[in-house]
Write a structure and sequence with these properties.
The structure holds two protein chains of two kinds.
Chain A: E1 5-12, H1 21-32, H2 37-58, E2 60-67, E3 71-78, H3 86-89, H4 99-103, H5 111-118, E4 121-127, E5 131-139
Antiparallel strand pairs in A: 1-2, 2-3, 3-5, 4-5
Chain B: E1 8-10, H1 20-24, E2 30-33, E3 36-39, H2 49-53, E4 59-61, E5 74-79, H3 93-102, E6 107-108, H4 111-126, E7 135-136, H5 141-150, H6 164-179, E8 188-194, H7 197-205, E9 216-219, H8 220-232, H9 245-249, H10 255-258, E10 265-269, H11 271-282, E11 291-295, H12 311-322, H13 361-377, H14 391-399, H15 409-429
Parallel strand pairs in B: 5-6, 5-8, 7-11, 8-9, 10-11
Antiparallel strand pairs in B: 1-4, 2-3
The chains are: A alpha+beta, B alpha/beta.
The complex binds adenosine-5'-diphosphate (ADP), iron/sulfur cluster (2 copies) and magnesium ion (MG).
The site of one iron/sulfur cluster has 13 residues of chain B, from helix 5 and helix 7.
Chain lengths: 140, 430
């Protein structure tokens, strides 16, 4: 058997209403693996925020969750506009979300800070005009 | 090993194995085995969806029959407020209460009265420091069970106050013992009249090490028919309702939350909607809220599986009977500065990872990989013909050893076609 498991999701940028589905699926799978509730919660929050960001800021992308015996790695990869100033984007409350996105309850500017808070390691590789790849690791 | 006794039972004669219920079960607890629906008792949360969707009326919720419990010398009826929404043209709740007396109950203790007490206690609890917000209502046992099985992180958000039915049972017994010292405790029977299948299970099994104070559960629909004829006699009421608008309002979705007079609340009904709300709270993706009311049934308890009327009509009727009632008839006396300890629950049962594939993470990962592989070979049309609700669930059932591989008729059909094709090719070669 392979040394790790991979869950792969295409995150649809068109469909706002169903955003967050991948995170629900991941949660279900992690429960079946018998991971502790606290780990599952951290993964699902980080995943959820990353997924929503791909939908509202980058027109969708792909998400991969790789499960190893001692850690989970979440990779979110998109071909969106990229992030110009990462340090600024990481600040709590900073958001470029449009009003229509805000009216749906998104755009509080807490996504990236929470992704960092709930994971043990987070890397952002982004190039303006090319896309963004975020890699998060949760150890257990 | 599982000792949880559910109230939903199957009439084997009527079940055709049509697969309707397996696909509608929110926890994927049902499979078709040997042509009949079979419920996994560990996963079942008693939501009643299978009862609602079965086109052959093969599922029902088991309750006790009133006539088998007439031996109690003093019988106290605990009507759920949803009962009052069942009667066409009802003007006054007292008529229903009188009806309950004429079919053999000695005393009435309205659950709506206890609900008003819970409202008052909840307002007090919300002001407590250092509690986890949003506070989630504890009244719907489906939601409590769902949280303990699937959202363990939200355990501490659940209101630690007993549901109205339970408080009504305690109060009813206290009152009967106080007013009738001549009776032995076991001569007093507390009867809950239930719109709800989940409450039947709750009463039978207790919760988190706690035993219910209700002695007998009677289905609201049974009582309804008895009441209809009793109420026709039109005896002038000798009982007076002790509930107000708030207590009656608890029967419909939103009633509990609006009664808190606090704008920061959310109320949702229908099991799928409730699951979505819980997912959102768990992900922190919900605005700061004080209180969340969740009812598994559409419309709230008026949508319970043991009701007669559709929830929307029942709700409208309740609005009519509530119209001239005082807002509430149950207040806390000035001295009551805390929730009485006997009404505090120890919380939900322990979290059990019921869906996990095995005890060891390594083994679970191997099984998950097998599930993924097998799933790739399946058509993905979720037809249910194999007896599992989805192709993914079927793959999981096979890997868990609960279903035999090779039961997918679509795959079998494809193989057959390929074989015929291969055979004809061979013939051509000759
Ligand atoms: N995948 C992404 N692609 C492009 N920009 C992004 C992406 N994720 C985040 N951003 C930028 O970073 C900002 C902050 O993100 P976040 O903290 O999640 O707040 P919010 O999503 O509420 O705006 C966003 O407003 C957006 O400008
Ligand atoms: S819905 Fe379920 S219980 Fe009813 S007939 Fe079909 S398989 Fe049987
Ligand atoms: S909404 Fe009411 S009737 Fe329905 S399951 Fe919950 S408590 Fe029971
Ligand atoms: Mg965000």
């Amino acid at each position: 058997m392979s040394e790790h498991l991979n869950f792969h999701y295409n995150v649809d940028g068109e469909n706002f209403v169903s955003a967050g589905q991948a995170s629900v699926q991941v949660k279900k799978n992690l429960r079946e693996l018998g991971l502790p509730p606290e780990v599952i919660r951290r993964v699902s929050i980080a995943m959820y925020e990353g997924e929503i960001n791909m939908v509202i800021h980058a027109d969708g992308g792909v998400a991969d969750v790789d499960v190893y015996e001692d850690k989970i790695v979440i990779t979110l990869d998109d071909r969106g506009p990229g992030i110009k100033d990462v340090a600024l984007a990481m600040q709590e409350g900073y958001s470029t979300a449009t009003d229509s996105v805000r009216s749906l309850g998104f755009g509080a500017g807490m996504g990236l800070p929470n992704m960092k808070r709930y994971t043990d390691d987070m890397r952002i590789d982004t190039t303006v005009g090319v896309g963004t790849k975020i890699t998060m690791t949760i150890n257990f | 090993m599982n000792s949880y006794r559910h109230s939903v039972v199957l009439d084997e004669e009527k079940c055709t194995g049509c697969t309707t219920c397996i696909r509608r079960c929110p926890t994927e607890a049902i499979r078709i085995l040997n042509g009949k629906a079979n419920i996994d008792t560990e996963r079942c949360i008693d939501c009643g969806e299978c009862i609602r969707v079965c086109p052959h009326k093969a599922k029902k919720a088991m309750c006790s029959k009133l006539e088998h419990y007439m031996h109690y010398k003093w019988k106290v009826a605990l009507p759920a407020p949803a009962l009052f929404g069942q009667f066409n043209g009802l003007e006054d709740i007292d008529e229903v209460l009188e009806g309950l007396k004429s079919i053999g109950f000695d005393e009435i203790y309205e659950v709506a009265k206890a609900a008003e007490m819970v409202t008052a206690y909840t307002r007090m609890y919300l002001k407590t420091d250092h509690i986890k917000k949003p506070v989630i209502s504890s009244a719907c046992p489906v939601i409590s069970r769902l949280i303990s099985l699937r959202f363990p992180y939200l355990k501490d958000n659940v209101l630690p106050i007993m549901p109205p039915m339970e408080i009504a049972a305690i109060k009813a017994r206290e009152k009967a013992e106080r007013e009738h010292p001549e009776l032995k405790p076991k001569e007093i029977g507390v009867f809950f009249i239930t719109p709800c299948a989940a409450k039947v299970s709750y009463i039978r099994n207790g919760y988190g090490g706690f035993k219910s104070n209700v002695d007998v559960v009677i289905s609201l629909s049974d009582i309804y028919f008895m009441l209809l004829s009793a109420m026709k006699r039109g005896n002038p009421p000798t009982v007076n309702s002790e509930a107000g608008m708030i207590g009656i309002g608890w029967a419909s979705s939103g009633g509990e939350a609006t009664a808190l007079l606090n704008d920061s609340y959310l109320s949702a009904d229908g099991i799928e909607n409730c699951i979505q709300v819980l997912e959102s709270i768990e992900n922190g993706n919900i605005p700061q809220l004080e209180f969340v009311e969740l009812n598994a049934c559409i419309g709230g308890c008026v949508g319970g599986v043991m009701t007669i009327e559709t929830p929307f009509i029942a709700k409208t009727r309740l609005q009519t009977v509530r119209r001239y009632l005082p807002v509430s008839r149950n207040f806390l006396s000035g001295e009551e500065a805390y929730v009485p300890p006997e009404f505090i629950t120890d919380g939900l049962p322990e979290y059990k990872p019921i869906t996990r594939l095995s005890d060891s993470m390594g083994q679970s990962m191997r099984m998950m990989a097998e599930i993924q592989q097998l799933r790739q070979t399946l058509p993905g049309i979720d037809c249910g013909a194999c007896g599992s609700p989805t192709c993914r669930a079927f793959a999981e059932d096979v890997v868990r050893g609960r279903a035999a591989d090779g039961r997918c008729c679509v795959v079998l059909q494809q193989q057959k076609q390929q074989n015929t094709y291969a055979d004809s090719m061979k013939e051509d070669e000759i």
